[in-house]
Specification:
The chain contains seven helices and eleven strands. By secondary structure, the protein is of the alpha/beta class. Strand 5, helix 3 and strand 6 form a beta-alpha-beta unit.
């Protein structure tokens, strides 16, 4: 049955589960193009290996050939980034932060990648976690959205300065922003000034409707 469902998922989007989130309203888990997808009314939070924004960034940076052991993900969804990192040879621990207990529950239920046993879930506000932790990571991924909007507190210099402290020497920071409308492009132009003020030599990667603000701690 699953085999046929996977085949037909390339034609149809199969709804599997709907939950009510206190942050995002109704969230829907569906099976589409052979992958689990988590979406809201206006945004796709996760789409397995089809979550192309980070996929493009990983390929651009040749992540597979960079020694990375500890990964921090702020805004986890169903864990698409873990799917994309599945065959990375050196990853040992992935710390998944999401303030939404519904999202955490769904991620624990539907994440199927071989790296799933290396994921530690924390249902916690990302801002509080960043200001409270002293741990450093070789790869830090910021993918925080409420529907299709990045909450304003995560674009402030104060948060970015605290975020910088979590990136290990030679570590990589990837901050994803939606970049598919006139409004989002204006917002990202302003955000870029704040980002580069905190992260000198930062650059951005255009990624299929998203812009990935990137910094390497050299």
């Amino acid at each position: 049955m699953f085999y046929f469902k996977k085949i037909f998922s390339y034609i149809f989007d199969f709804p599997i589960e709907k939950r009510q989130s206190r942050f995002s309203g109704e969230v829907i888990v569906s099976f589409h193009k052979g992958q689990y997808k988590l979406s809201t009314t206006n945004a796709i939070y996760s789409f397995g290996k089809n979550y192309t924004s980070f996929g493009i960034a990983f390929k651009t940076l040749d992540i597979q050939n960079i020694n990375i052991e500890n990964v921090l993900v702020l805004g986890f969804g169903l864990g698409s980034v873990v799917d994309l990192l599945e065959h990375h040879p050196t990853i040992k621990i992935i710390t998944a932060i999401d303030a939404d207990e519904v999202i955490i529950q769904l991620a624990e239920k539907y994440l199927q990648t071989g790296l799933k046993n290396k994921v530690t879930y924390l249902c916690e506000d990302a801002e509080k976690y960043i200001t409270g932790t002293r741990q450093k990571f070789e790869l830090v991924l910021v993918d925080i959205f409420i529907d299709d909007t990045t909450p304003v507190q995560f674009m402030q210099p104060a948060f970015l300065k605290e975020l910088k402290k979590t990136v290990d020497s030679n570590g990589i920071l990837l901050f994803s922003k939606i970049d598919d409308s006139h409004k989002s492009k204006i917002e990202n132009s302003l955000f870029e000034k704040s980002f580069t003020a905190v992260f000198p030599e930062a650059f951005s990667i255009d990624a299929n409707g998203n812009k990935i603000f990137t910094w390497i701690n050299r």
